[in-house]
């Protein structure tokens, strides 16, 4: 009789955990380039990414999202990997702009690397620089990915 009620309870718990994880993304920002003014607007009152549950955080060990904004050089790539390894599980990476995604206007430079070569990326936000609306849309895509990946266990058994 207890087995009959176990699956719905786990389903409800999984739903609540997924909902909480989806609406409490704590990103750490790795900003090195000219996309930062556009990125700062997203935290302002007009676009307000906090209404989506995205709260910028300063400590890497409590964060679950790494937002890479700007050019990544080979030397900085080591720091990006180090930050990524310090984050707890589950962890997500968002590439903001053309520079971390495909090296941007520095595509033929020996010193720049794409973020894909360093860490696995979950969401790409295109643009040079991306508009605040695009960044909000990328964060909403990340929330949808979290909902799908961390979904119900009861239906998978």
What's the SSE blueprint?
Elements: H1 2-22, E1 27-31, H2 36-43, E2 65-69, H3 74-86, E3 92-96, H4 98-102, E4 123-125, H5 132-149
Parallel strand pairs: 1-2, 2-3, 3-4
Helix pairs in contact: 1-5, 2-5
The H-and-E topology, N to C, reads as HEHEHEHEH
Tell me the number of structural domains: 1
Strand content: 5-15%
The total strand number stands at 4
List unreliable stretches of 5+ residues: 152-157
The CATH architecture comes to 3-Layer(aba) Sandwich
Multimeric status of the protein: single chain
Mean pLDDT, all residues:
82
The strands making up the biggest β-sheet line up spatially as 1-2-3-4
Instruction: Note the gap between the termini.
Output: 18 Å
Taking the sheet with the most strands, its summary is: 4 strands, parallel
Helix fraction bin: 40-55%
How does the overall form come out from the CA principal axes? Answer: globular
Q: Nearest-angstrom radius of gyration?
A: 18 Å
Tally of helical runs? 5
What is the top-level CATH class?
Alpha Beta
Structural class: alpha/beta
Which fold name is given in CATH as the topology? Rossmann fold
List keywords for this structure.
alpha/beta; single chain; Rossmann fold; 157 residues; 4 strands; globular; four-stranded parallel β-sheet; disordered C terminus; 41% helix
Tell me what you see in this structure:
The chain has 157 residues and is α/β, with parallel strands linked by helices. It has a single domain (26-152), classed as Rossmann fold, CATH 3.40.50. The protein is built from five helices and four strands, in the order H-E-H-E-H-E-H-E-H. It has helices spanning 2-22, 36-43, 74-86, 98-102, 132-149, and strands at residues 27-31, 65-69, 92-96, 123-125. Helix 2 links the parallel strand 1 and strand 2 (65-69). Helix 1 runs antiparallel to helix 5 and helix 2 (36-43) packs across helix 5. The longest helix is centred in the N-terminal third of the chain and has 21 residues, at 2-22. The two termini are 18 Å apart. The relative contact order is 0.20. The model is unreliable at 152-157 (pLDDT under 50).
């Amino acid at each position: 009789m207890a087995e009959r009620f176990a699956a719905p309870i786990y389903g409800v718990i999984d739903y609540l955990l997924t909902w909480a994880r989806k609406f409490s993304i704590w990103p750490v920002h790795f900003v090195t380039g000219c996309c930062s003014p556009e990125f700062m607007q997203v935290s302002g009152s007009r676009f307000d990414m906090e209404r989506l549950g995205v709260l910028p955080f300063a400590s890497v060990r409590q964060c679950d999202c790494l937002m890479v904004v700007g050019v990544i050089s080979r030397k900085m790539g080591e720091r990006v990997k180090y930050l990524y390894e310090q984050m707890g599980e589950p962890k997500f990476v968002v590439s903001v702009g053309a520079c971390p995604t495909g090296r941007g206007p520095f595509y033929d430079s020996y010193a720049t690397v794409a973020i894909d070569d360093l860490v696995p990326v979950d969401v790409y936000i295109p643009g040079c620089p991306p508009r605040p609306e695009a960044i909000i849309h990328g964060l909403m895509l990340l929330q949808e990915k979290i909902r799908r990946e961390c979904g119900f266990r009861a239906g998978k058994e």
